[in-house]
Amino acid sequence: MKYPRPPWDEATIRRFFTESPNQLEYSKLLGFKFLDLNAEDMWFDAQWEPDLRVCSPTGAVQGGMVTAMLDDTMSLAAVTVAGFDGVVPTLEMKTSFISPVWPGKLRCRGQVIKKGKQFFFTEGWLWDADGKLLTKSSATCFHKSHEEVKRIRKERGL
Predict the structure, then answer these.
(1) What tens digit of pLDDT does each residue of 19-78 get?
(2) Strand (E) positions, the chain?
């Protein structure tokens, strides 16, 4: 799929995640798979399938890896709402661990709770295959458009 000029509509975002194999390496490591999205309701669903490579000695998925799955899914919800125009880096994030996360198929939802002009407030939830809530998270993100990112990169000589 050719990378279209932003802003993207919901159909373009869906097509990107279903037709494009260009996942980032950490997403591959954690077993990312697109499930669904709704730009109007501001949520993004993903499946993650971490394996033993990302587990602590107890056999549970290491907390930083769990946080990465939540962070990525919440960020994907925010960038979906922004029409994939730029980046939405996380400024701060809180994760509550309710139960150990074991390797295997997991479902995660990221949701934009409030969108301002530049700031996004997001929440995320991670469930096991049986639907048991394992972790939840909240974050504040800051949107920078593609034009802003290009300008900053140019200023820094990147």
Answers:
(1) 876 678 889 999 999 999 999 999 999 999 999 999 999 999 999 999 999 999 999 999
(2) 33-38, 43-48, 90-97, 106-115, 119-128, 133-142
Summarised one tens digit per residue, pLDDT across range 110-150 is 999 999 989 999 999 999 999 999 999 999 999 998 888 88
Q: φ, ψ for residue 113 (rounded to 5)? A: -90, -40
Q: Rounded distance, CA 143 to CA 60, Å?
A: 33
Q: What is the largest CA-CA distance in the chain?
A: 49
Which segments within 98-156 are labelled E, that is strand?
106-115, 119-128, 133-142
Contact 96, 60 (CB under 8 A): no
- Find, among 88, 59, 84, 61, the residue nearest to 72 by Cα: 88
Contact 126, 134 (CB under 8 A): yes
Task: State whether residue 126 is helix, strand or coil.
Answer: strand
